[in-house]
Design brief:
The protein is mainly α and 64 residues long. The chain is built from one helix and no strands. The longest helix is centred in the middle third of the chain and has 26 residues. The radius of gyration is 27 Å and the shape is flat.
Length: 64
Amino acid sequence: MSGREGGKKKPLKAPKKDGKELDDDDLAHKAKLKEQQKAMQEAKAKASQKGPLVSGGIKKSGKK
């Protein structure tokens, strides 16, 4: 055992996966996810146009 062989050895690279064929259910699921993501982006853009919901933060009373 020489000093250069110490420590963890790198794992071998995994072979590339072949592209799998998508059926109708998979395509419908992907379309649904894409539609949900688009709706979320639109909602985020709409919410950013308005000001913040809370404007004062913690309100302190005048009493001590």
